[in-house]
Structure prediction request, 1140 residues.
Amino acid sequence: MTPDIRVTIAGTEFVNPIWTASGCCGYGEELANVFPLSKLGALVTKSITQKPRMGHRPPRTAETASGMLNAIGLANVGIDAFISDKIPWLEQQPTKIIVNVAGSSIQEYVNVSARLADSPRVDMIELNISCPNVDKGGIEFGVDPVMTEKCVSEVRRVFKRPIIAKLGPNVTDITQIAKAAEAGGADALAIMNSAFGTSVNIDTWRPRLTNNRGGLTGPAIKPMALLMVDVVYRSGVKLPIIGIGGIATWQDVVEFMLFGATAVQVGTQLFVEPDAPVKIAAGLKAYMKTKKLATVADLVGKVQRW
Amino acid sequence: MTPDIRVTIAGTEFVNPIWTASGCCGYGEELANVFPLSKLGALVTKSITQKPRMGHRPPRTAETASGMLNAIGLANVGIDAFISDKIPWLEQQPTKIIVNVAGSSIQEYVNVSARLADSPRVDMIELNISCPNVDKGGIEFGVDPVMTEKCVSEVRRVFKRPIIAKLGPNVTDITQIAKAAEAGGADALAIMNSAFGTSVNIDTWRPRLTNNRGGLTGPAIKPMALLMVDVVYRSGVKLPIIGIGGIATWQDVVEFMLFGATAVQVGTQLFVEPDAPVKIAAGLKAYMKTKKLATVADLVGKVQRW
Amino acid sequence: MIRPSCEETVLLRHRDLKHNYYSLTFGPYSRAKECRPGSFIHVHLPHTDVYFRRAMSVAAIDPKKKEIEIIFKIFGRGTTLLSKFAKDAKLDILGPLGAPFALPTKTERVVIVAGGVGFPPLMFLATDLVQRGYDPKKIEFFYGGRSDGDIVERARIKKLGVNFHVTTDDGSLGEKGFVTRSVESFIKAHGSEKLRLYGCGPDAMLKATNDLGLKYELPGQLSLEAPMPCGIGVCLGCVVKTTRGDYVRVCVEGPVFNIGEVEL
Amino acid sequence: MIRPSCEETVLLRHRDLKHNYYSLTFGPYSRAKECRPGSFIHVHLPHTDVYFRRAMSVAAIDPKKKEIEIIFKIFGRGTTLLSKFAKDAKLDILGPLGAPFALPTKTERVVIVAGGVGFPPLMFLATDLVQRGYDPKKIEFFYGGRSDGDIVERARIKKLGVNFHVTTDDGSLGEKGFVTRSVESFIKAHGSEKLRLYGCGPDAMLKATNDLGLKYELPGQLSLEAPMPCGIGVCLGCVVKTTRGDYVRVCVEGPVFNIGEVEL
Ligand SMILES: Cc1cc2nc3c(=O)[nH]c(=O)nc-3n(C[C@H](O)[C@H](O)[C@H](O)COP(=O)(O)OP(=O)(O)OC[C@H]3O[C@@H](n4cnc5c(N)ncnc54)[C@H](O)[C@@H]3O)c2cc1C
Ligand SMILES: Cc1cc2nc3c(=O)[nH]c(=O)nc-3n(C[C@H](O)[C@H](O)[C@H](O)COP(=O)(O)OP(=O)(O)OC[C@H]3O[C@@H](n4cnc5c(N)ncnc54)[C@H](O)[C@@H]3O)c2cc1C
Ligand SMILES: Cc1cc2nc3c(=O)[nH]c(=O)nc-3n(C[C@H](O)[C@H](O)[C@H](O)COP(=O)(O)O)c2cc1C
Ligand SMILES: Cc1cc2nc3c(=O)[nH]c(=O)nc-3n(C[C@H](O)[C@H](O)[C@H](O)COP(=O)(O)O)c2cc1C
Ligand code: FES
Ligand code: FES
Prediction:
């Protein structure tokens, strides 16, 4: 019997729990040249804002120990061009499509989401309320329970299909934010966005990013992300969790699921190994065979605490 | 002219800005067998509590990507044995002695600090108000500005020599805590303690630490620590900053200083390279020569923001 | 549209070119013959503490043997570790990547401007042109470096029969001075008609070459470098500003850009 | 008091002992002759993505040539990468570390219980005893493994002239069954007087050996393993609980503990 790695979140079935993370797979075209997207549970697009955004001046990225810093600055084509140029292609793709939405006001989230509501092949939206790179941006929402709830509930009114709220680690107590997102009507939580960090070039004395700081991602942050998932999973919040942060191997995915993630997203590792999701799905299946697990849901939350 | 790497913090002069971090150098004896402690700016002891603590059950540590998780559980000999067994040896050492103090109540911090006040060779104390490993412990102080200020100011009353407040990263806004420590009368800030994280063994489904979670340290967290130093340095807080987090090389030290650290502490890297402080001091001097810097203070805060 | 893929190849030849330059040849690499001058590959450094791949221009291919060669100079940790891999090591290569150079017309005279470590894709270009039957005597290969150690693989260029001009900043080999000064002398002497420029090298040299192109209204292309997390266009980390004012990806829209196209 | 130091040494010999076992010999290592049976070293894996050092018992020394040998089995990433270093590689060694075995008296009969990868320090012990003039016929060397591939370096043990007893769980070599069963048979046959036990191996075997020691009231020592971030006693990460109820460091108070001293 081949192990069943399908997962269902908010009534939607995914062929597997391995998704790509926003900002790490563009709008999907490039990745589709590397492997068939049918191998992917879901594709999560780069954050879309109302207006097109050029993003920050380069350098926008810097390598760090087992990770990277980025301050892309939410560069994206804007909702108009996204709908006219990207959606038609995305609608043809043999995978679930999740559009990540960002904004610097609740109204912007609402406006972008309302437009996406008209595209039935947008299976879900993911609200990026935790982007560390925009000065006057999403970050205020993601650290404030009241704003989080408001943002989600207002979007809820205009977007009827499932909504994922994507939380960041840069708060004292992530469960408060998770609860606020739940109260606002989110269907699932994506945990977590980048941590914060910076670095400086010791020859020029300039920060390595023109934005002076950026989001820290990659294997370095995996232990933090696992803890965030663990804490929220045990907090009484009922929503399914999509685990994100430093996933590079199928072993990492097993860790996230044991701590309570129903699905995961692969981000930075795509840069090193663009076909990582394919390898991870295969490894996960092999692991389930060894462990004699019929369905991948048998892993979720099964960590045995001391 | 040989570069001058002495630094002065709260009126105390240190032969160099390279210190060892609490919990990563015991009480100094073992390290003294590896290199002469006179090479060290200061030695910061393992956290001392009122009663002896055995610490958590093993496994207490787990390796992660470019870092580690630990939940030692503040294992220490307690203030009585520290004063009778450790202080006499420490008093003979040719380096500055900083005793790190932890507690689960403000009274415990005060009691331990009061005892240390009687040992004039304890040059400074460092208040660990941000230990991620004690359930009913320091952590509440370190995330709450009111408790932080109270803790520091009460200790201030019993300990007249310089007090360093050691802050953790696990807060929404570290500047609030820094300001509270300043208001409480701290003389310097140590930034930062471990981040939080966890990991699970995918064969046994047990967390890798019996404490179920631990502190994340090592090069993985360096970008976060640099940002914390940067943010506090620019926040209007006037206190000198001691940078900690993932320092492995002299290049890392230069980064911390450019962002505003007056001195640094080396932690996890001591496990990999017990003589790291000696190598780092040499590298720092060579760098200063290349850059024609007369004194190491010429680096502090000199990052050129974009 | 190019479909890049990851492929494990074997390090067949490891040559120390001295002065911190190395040549590595990998094979069998199934995509070798799809690599064009200007194409690059993204090399993974297995088991090392360097997380990202490193972009390397293709310096030569052997389509029959399915081999590709890269040439690099030790710059930082990535290239240091790359230089340490020994013969028979297995490295994963992501490629072929990037938009290659556009070929000149037969009536054009080609002026190649290579600066230091910008040499590899241009050696490939010259080799490719000669193999395609382009008259080597109509190829001016300018190669500048800081000193003689920076001028590698001279014999290979000479063998192509192209007009070879070497400059060094310190005069230790060839003409003394910046390579672009020699190029300008040539343009002045020869006249700017039917010339096409190709350049790759350090930022200052690229800028000077771009300026020459604009000044003498020469068509041509430059190959750029940028920090490249992904190399396939998904991270938006490698962008460069165009003279139109928008950002384009060096890894997909480049690394080869027309003269005057990007801000240098 | 031992003063450990970091020292760069060269990998002089790399032997594949098959079945995932390897022997590496390093030198010149100035501290070689200070290594005693039970001592361990902490090996740094340069340039790799493994952050911590790996603890390895000293398996043999050549004090004149200043060489030390370690023997290990591939277990996880650390040992995998260690096995990949080639001859002439430079590795930094921190040592000598740990409290070594206490020597038996001349009147005692020595019973050595080696399980799988616990073999190296015990080979060193047996070699050392014989070199010190201890009668090899009074050394019983029990060596158990899962199957014949786990029993390495047999010729070296035989050459010592000790009484050599091999067991395998699957009976593919020597006697079939757990090594501690054979040891118990020996104790029963021989009588428990004037016996001294030395053991190293997997947890279950250590526990069984400890139990034998307690049951027959034998003096002796066991060498333990634990995850070891620092190896020098500063992190408190490697602790084990003693039967007195406190925690001691495997790296400093151990790795060698008396029978009955720690909870297994
Ligand atoms: C399309 C392309 C082709 C290239 N071809 C060659 C070649 O043929 N020969 C050669 O020697 N080098 C080439 N490079 C540069 C090479 O990729 C190395 O990254 C660069 O030399 C930095 O060396 P390092 O990795 O040792 O430095 P490190 O210090 O290890 O890392 C430098 C870091 O900064 C980034 N970075 C900084 N500057 C650059 C840069 N100019 N290019 C790329 N990344 C940078 C890297 O991504 C990396 O994260 C090319 C780069 C690109 C983008
Ligand atoms: C004093 C001492 C002597 C040793 N001598 C030998 C020897 O002679 N031959 C040999 O093959 N092995 C020996 N080991 C074990 C060796 O150090 C390896 O760490 C262990 O085999 C794990 O293999 P790995 O590094 O490939 O595993 P990885 O999966 O890469 O890492 C395992 C991780 O867990 C920790 N860990 C888990 N279990 C152990 C363990 N039992 N011992 C140490 N660390 C562990 C490690 O610190 C590391 O962080 C010794 C260990 C100690 C403490
Ligand atoms: C270059 C880059 C760009 C990113 N852009 C976005 C974005 O636009 N929106 C978003 O919600 N997250 C963005 N992220 C965050 C990722 O989706 C993910 O949450 C984070 O990288 C952690 O996962 P990882 O460690 O697997 O990369 C970006 C990350 C990177 C590295
Ligand atoms: C094993 C271990 C034990 C630690 N124990 C303490 C402690 O007792 N008190 C304290 O204030 N910090 C403790 N720390 C935190 C360090 O002092 C330091 O703040 C942290 O490790 C980050 O620095 P690093 O990345 O250089 O290790 C400990 C860290 C480690 C790794
Ligand atoms: S390197 Fe990622 S988009 Fe170019
Ligand atoms: S390994 Fe650090 S105390 Fe033993």
Notes: Chain B touches chain D at residues 23-26, 30-31, 33-34, 46, 54-55, 57-68, 70, 72, 75, 218-219, 268, 270-275 (CB under 8 Å). Chain B has ten helices and 14 strands. The first strand of chain B starts at residue 7 and ends at 9.
